[in-house]
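1st attempt posting a full record on here, be nice pls
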Amino acid sequence: MSSTENTRKRRAIAELVGFVAFALISKQMMDSFLGAYSGPASLITTLILLTIYMHQRGEKWASMGLRALPGAKAKLLLLPQALLIFVSVLGTIVLLTKGLESIGLTFMSETPEGEISRWGDIEGNLQQYLILIDLSWISAGFGEEMFFRGFVITRLQNAFNGTKLASAFAVLLAALLFGYVHFYYQGLTGLVNATAIGLIFGTFFLLYKRNLWPLVLAHGFINSLGFTSDFMGWGI
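the predicted structure (as tokens):
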């Protein structure tokens, strides 16, 4: 392996460890004064610093999936691509829930107490609902896809370059990290759900040739559906 490749791998690992650590530590520091919004705030802060860092290195988000869509065909395919992710996620969560219930584990069908205490009861609360819808798109749709798929997976691919199943390891580790950051307020339900979702989104990120736009749309729709259900009292 060339010295250039070794340098590239070491840089990818250093960038990954540095920015993930910053996101986690800054979230803890923001907890005391931002409460429920410390997660989105730390993620957005991390992305701002990451963007500045990338700019200094001459790198753009386009190289990690947030690129212009060339031609009408790519734009027309965007919605069906997002819908396929949406259906895959919902189907997987239903299968996981039913499968675990069949062996006596019912935690997947229960709303985590941490999620209720974090956002409060939003049923009929229009102001809180609109805030959470905004977060669904800004922090979750764009922010989480840019970071966990665009940044983390591509850096892991660089770190594992030359290793058999490098992309599979990248998707798996990114999904586990995604699950971990949902564990603190969603418990075991969030860990399982988010890890499964991370695996699906990561797989589609590679299938769509590092195109983040379908993932952003699907992620925003999924979170918006959940908050809309809570607001309307549908109990989905």
